[in-house]
Amino acid sequence: MASSSSITITTFLFLFLLHTTAKKTYIIRVKHSDKPESFLTHHDWYTSQLQSQSSLLYTYTTSFHGFSAYLDSNEADSLLSSNSILDIFEDPLYTLHTTRTPEFLGLNSEFGVYTGQDLASASNGVIIGVLDTGVWPESKSFDDTDMPEIPSKWKGECESGSDFDSKLCNKKLIGARSFSKGFQMASGGGFSSKRESVSPRDVDGHGTHTSTTAAGSAVGNASFLGYAAGTARGMATHARVATYKVCWSSGCFGSDILAAMDRAILDGVDVLSLSLGGGSAPYYRDTIAIGSFSAMERGVFVSCSAGNSGPTRASVANVAPWVMTVGAGTLDRDFPAFANLGNGKRLTGVSLYSGVGMGTKPLELVYNKGNSSSSNLCLPGSLDSGIVRGKIVVCDRGVNARVEKGAVVRDAGGLGMIMANTAASGEELVADSHLLPAVAVGKKTGDLLREYVKSDSNPTAVLVFKGTVLDVKPSPVVAAFSSRGPNTVTPEILKPDVIGPGVNILAGWSDAIGPTGLEKDSRRTQFNIMSGTSMSCPHISGLAGLLKAAHPEWSPSAIKSALMTTAYVLDNTNAPLHDAADNSLSNPHAHGSGHVDPQKALSPGLVYDISTEEYIRFLCSLDYTVDHIVAIVKRPSVNCSKKFSDPGQLNYPSFSVLFGGKRVVRYTREVTNVGAENSVYKVTVNGAPSVAISVKPSKLAFRSVGEKKRYTVTFVSKKGVSMTNKAEFGSITWSNPQHEVRSPVAFSWNRF
């Protein structure tokens, strides 16, 4: 019988040999020019360096010089002895969630163990309500495997319809309702589209996309036609989803929205997500502001999209201070595509085209030719098939939908399209799943392209598509389409509040419609990639759900404060955030407090809390009648004897200083300690060129958790500053070794 020591030695040797001989995939970067003439191809050369020909997986020639191979550690080490081998590394594992955003936001496997509790388990009790175009319940993103029973607080239901069985709801998708009366009345008492469904079923795709972004379950091997492959998941994967269909083919009606918000509050949602909005209006005329005030008063966090009217100044929507207003930024992921011109230049753009490529034969380029004055925009009916057939058409971005331009080109016989930005969209690139080979390029590139087509006697191009690229720098960048401040309803409240991922976002999709949304698009896909503040809004809705799970005692204002004061304003190159519109530096009128950072928001240190009574004092400070205010707060009467002398006195986590005819503006803020006891914070001020800022006291000492402290900020406009529409910016930060609680400050001298 063998001794125990010999067994131990044998086991050790076995494990050692297993470790040294276990094979892995490696990527090997090679000095391309070192290939001996004796080898016909690089593939042959690479194969000769391996012990087994079958070990070679891929040969890279364009995007990367080298190869990948399945090797054990000894083989990998032996390769490094060659001077032609520049680098060798293990095949990296990417955990791609929605499919990139949770990782980009720091929602990795370590996120969620907070103050001893399991955040995933805690978020089972959080219900996120989404007001949108309905839901496709069969989506894998609503899988309820291993989810516990529905929280007892839930009072909602799953409505049935001719195409929607109430049994389609489960422990993940716990509610689905439809609100169409306002729409039907506006449509003459019926439905204007054969495809329209009165049930909660989503025949548009938008609602399924937003709801799965907020709280979709994890779905492995997800992609959009091969793009953005990975595991698709929402922000709060363990939270529950309830959908409220309020948007129809002609839009979303205020009557339906208010009815849905009313019902959602009674149903027991914790978060409301609204990726919709309109122009600016007084709060008493804004149905979303009115409905969300009631939600806030009952502890429901409301997140709304800022709008897609950027980069136009003062275009931000959903600006009520009790609403989280969300702008959009880019991810560190891109979908590169190129147009190789006949003059040897290569133009860089983006695309999600997934069909058969164009090959390598150059095709003639045409731009703005024919009798139509709108052929440059590729509007329906504007292209002459005799001119564009068999060619690549250059289309200016704007007026009609981007994907419609591609369909117009295809229907006219064109074989490809390059969509070129104009000044309105600047350098922002949004990828689309066009029906024909198509590339989108920025304004500067578009100007070069247009000039080439006009000046060259035989302009040609070849379109090339390169799939998905990660770790793009710089990111995030503020999306050009993201609506901007200042806030025209109440300039003393800085909007938007934050930005979140909103460009090229992958999430669940409806099987009732193709990815472009065009009727002629017969493709069907479980996931789609979309862009807009519609996409950034549910990111924040899901994150708010996580914070609600971690801190159930926090008010909606406290959750909002945590997300705002911990947001970052430096990109992944450690440079200030930039604006995609013109690549200039961004500012708080574009990005608000910055880009959300959920890891830090879990433990913000201090929060700026706001009670319902304080919001009423804010409303009283506006030029509203008592009846106007009552319409918002839904009380028999209001007492405005304690109104603020200035709307900016609201205890908001950011500052927007409107001097008007004054030189001095003074605000007092109150912060609540949600960090450790015996915490001390010191203030740091970053001023603006034309404004002096002083803060008293300069130090805040908290003995206990929950303790509140006040400070006063005095802003003094320097003499000689011209009263123009100019804006300047600064910041006020309270910090200690554990926390930085940052508030942006915007300065203006006149109302917009």
UniProtKB/TrEMBL annotation:
InterPro entries for the chain: PA_domain (IPR003137), Peptidase_S8/S53_dom (IPR000209), Peptidase_S8/S53_dom_sf (IPR036852), Peptidase_S8_Ser-AS (IPR023828), Peptidase_S8_subtilisin-rel (IPR015500), Peptidases_S8_3 (IPR034197), S8pro/Inhibitor_I9 (IPR010259), S8pro/Inhibitor_I9_sf (IPR037045)
Gene Ontology terms for molecular function: serine-type endopeptidase activity
Any GO BP annotation: proteolysis
Peptidase S8/S53 domain mapped to chain residues: 124-578
Residue ranges of every copy of the Subtilisin-like protease fibronectin type-III domain listed in the record: 649-746
Principal location: secreted
Domain called PA: residue spans: 364-449
CDD domains for the chain: PA_subtilisin_like, Peptidases_S8_3
Annotated spans, Disordered: 188-212
One Gene Ontology CC term in the entry: extracellular region
Cleavable signal peptide: 1-22
Active site: residue positions: D132, H206, S534
Domain Inhibitor I9, residue spans: 25-97
Protein localization: Secreted
Pfam families: fn3_6, Inhibitor_I9, PA, Peptidase_S8
Comp. bias intervals (Basic and acidic residues): 193-207
Keywords carried by this UniProt record: Glycoprotein, Hydrolase, Protease, Secreted, Serine protease, Signal, Zymogen
Family the UniProt entry places it in: Belongs to the peptidase S8 family.
Protein's name in the database: Predicted protein
